[in-house]
Amino acid sequence: MIAKLLRLQPHQPLTSEAAKSAPLAIQGLSVAYHHKPVVWDLSFIAPAQGLVAVVGPNGAGKSTFIKAALGLIPKLSGEITVYGKSVASQRHLIGYVPQRGSVDWDFPASALDVVTMGLYGKIGWLRPVRKAHRAAALGYLEQVGMADFADRQIGQLSGGQQQRVFLARALAQDAALYFMDEPFVGVDAATERAIVNVLKDLKDQGKTVICVHHDLQSAPDYFDHALILNIRPVASGPMAEAFTAENLQHAYGGRLAPSELSGLIPLAGQ
Amino acid sequence: MLTELLDILSFQGGYNTSVVLLGSALLGMAGGVIGVFSLLRKRALISDAISHATLPGITLGFLVALALTGTGKSLPFLMTGATISGILGVLLVQWIKDNTRLPEDSAIGTVLSSFFGLGVVLMSYIQTLRDGSQAGLESYLLGSTASMLQSEAEMIAVFALLITLTAAIFLKEFGLICFDPDYAASRGWSVSKIDLLMMALLLAVVVIGLKTVGLILIIALVIIPPVTARFWTDRLGLMVGISAFSGGISCFLGAGLSALTPDFPSGATIVLTATTLFLLSLFLAPRRGVLATGLRQIFFRYRISRRRALLSLGQGQPVLSSLFILLLKHEGTLDKNGQVTKLGQQKIRQMSRDQDLWNQYLSDYPEEAFAQKNWSLSMITDVLPPDLIHELEENLRLQQKVAG
Amino acid sequence: MDLPLADFLQIDLPALLVAVLAGLCCGLPGNFLVLRRQSLIGDAMSHVVLPGIVVGYLLSGTLDTLPMLLGALSAALISALLIEGIKRLGKIEAGAAMGVVFTSMFALGVLILEQTGASGVHLDVEHALYGNLESTLWLGLNDWKDLLSPTGLEQMPNSLQRLLGVSLLVILLTVAFFKELKISTFDPEMASSLGFSARLISIGLVVMTALSAVAAFDAVGSILVIAMFICPAATARMWTDNLSRQLWLSAVFATLSGITGYLAAAFAPLLLGADFALNAAGMIAVVASVFQCVSMIFAPDHGKLGRVLKQRQALKME
Fold first, then answer.
1. pLDDT single digits (tens) B80-114
2. Contact assignment for C98 to B45 by CB distance below 8 Å
3. Protein fold of B2-281
4. Among B94, C31, C81, C261, which residue carries the largest CB count within 10 Å?
5. Measured between beta carbons, which residues in chain C are less than 8 angstroms from residue B109?
6. CA atoms within 13 A on the CB side of C244
């Protein structure tokens, strides 16, 4: 009650035409953790089709931003819409690939089981998983080159294979808007290529992927948009406009050596 | 009734009662001290496995004593049995954790229930024996100071004193391995030996406390006081002190109440006294208590909302929350008609400036800014030193020039 | 050994049924507790239902099912709330927070029992600790066919009725929400992002655990309920990497433990020539843990022995 009374200074509501049709529109999002702001006054409109890299230093609120956008953690203020409607009513349009470290790999489930979980949202409460669902899940495993491992317990897969299973699960969600939290961490080169291909396919199908990404060197190669975060948003937009040395310097401060930056700029300018 | 209680608590309730009280207070202190370390080493519930695992040992000790001495109710035999089966219980938990895919909590649950089950089976066998002495055996389940012999009370008091002293002697070592076991190892301390000593003292508290508090509730003695202390302080020395004090006082008061009337079984009374202290701390503790946390949450929301309201006004946007319009009118930022006053304009400028500087700090020193608890909460001039603010102002000006 | 049918039907059959049903209704939710590393929720719930049952009894004056369940459920929910609060405010690990709450609640239950004399009638502390399996009598059964006759059913003991109802409910809920339980146990964030609120399912599981604990409490007492929660699931975990198979296996182990344990307690001493019976609930816990120990050593893929042999083989290959 009191929390409601003391609601943050409300923001302008999301009414613009651009916001109504955007896969993800955020206005004035603030999130606090342990009485400290970790995301501050973030406004962002995602492109209708494309791959967005969310970059920023450790502790800049990248994962928090994703979780708040998904409605997994409470926000202090701000409005979030997905295709013009609330997140809760658009869950069927949203796919999510959490960080790989967040699950128990000894869990009694096979690769196929995990991918089938991607279909649960469509199956809905109380309805059981049927044969057709499993067949569909197998198809998605095949797309990431993992059909041969369908019956393998997930803990017995390598890090890269596990990530592919997670990716297949995201494909199974058949969403229009995807959130991914560091999918490239701890995977081998072949898996990295496979993930990039999946991302390209998703983009070609007209989907939007918002992806927390750690590696500044590869960001301009893999993504076409950037959101640079540093608790507050530093810049966002097409890669060439947003991913500039100046903006990165603003986000990373003194921690990016000039040489690192100069290495990045030609890439960013492509 | 109150005067009787005061008599008992001031050690005028007879020699036997006084020894029981003293022994209980020492036991509570020992539990409080050693409990802090088991809590910090994230082993609080191992003691649950230990305590339940003592039951088969108690019953076997009873049977052995019966065979050797003709009566089963012999404290030394029962305690030896309890110790041995307690040790076996700990070892089994460790084995399951190390050798199977089961996590520690499942291991603890398995050991405590299966040992207890075995103990119950043996108890039911003992009940069938034609011997009068098994009647007191049940007092080990829920604790009973009423049936305590003088010799037993003295023995418990002496052991409790020994445990407290040992724990006090090794305070530094225990603190070291709780705080930073790797550092301790690098400085030549044997972490495993200190751990072993800690476990031994934990076991000793459990075994000594069986008669007073009972094996079902004994773990309360090593969990509740440390958790109570945790609400008051972050400093180890203080935490040990508060925990020992609240453990000691709980046992002292609990045992006193229980001596007053048989309606207060000693184990449950002691635990509930400790719970009372805990609940007081949970609500009233200055930083972590429910009350303090609630107030802080409200204050935090207020500060951050006020800042955002002023910033919006600065950007020419209206304040939408009616509560904040009232608040801003009250502090003179807005006049009766909701227009910004002269004073208000000054406040708004000041706040925008402050936010610009905080943002500049975030850009220039992200790592420091992430660690700064007051980022965008307090005024920056109250938090950062003047020379740093001066530098931020310079950078801000430079940037505005480039942008402009 | 000569065993009149009526004796078996009136004494042993209800006890066997209670033992098996208690194992089933605790064993099923136990699977999820073990996988979530929340086994000790079973421990906590089995303790905290005591004050709930006692208060329910004092307020209603009967040991009927409804006040008992309501009392226990409210105690369980209050405890869950307290545990969560202590964990967050004090930044204290889950185990210790649970330890504070369940010892306090159990002590409260014991104290109220002693203070009010509720202990005189049907409830007493010993009963709370190791149950009352042997005293479950189904009078009026003289022949197998009485089992389904209206008069026979009417005399079905209260505790068996309660257990039967709760078991059916638990089985139904587990089957109906299998998919939801599975995903929220494996990946709670993913579950929430799909619209299956992990918190809601978590609370549901706690409520189911509390229900099972109350129903089985009567039969086996509060400590041994823990064995029912954990042992069958932990045993099944040694034999399979498939969740639905694990649930089936745990049900089988729970049933076997119940039957073997009861029979061993009731008849093994007789076979040895003694004329007494041992505590059945305790024996069931012992049997369940024997199954678990054997599995932890001998299960093919996840047993200690199998893994050691595999390692040896791998070394030889090199």
1. 999 999 999 999 999 999 999 999 999 999 999 99
2. yes
3. ABC transporter involved in vitamin B12 uptake, BtuC (1.10.3470)
4. C261
5. 39-40, 42-43, 226-227, 229-230
6. 9
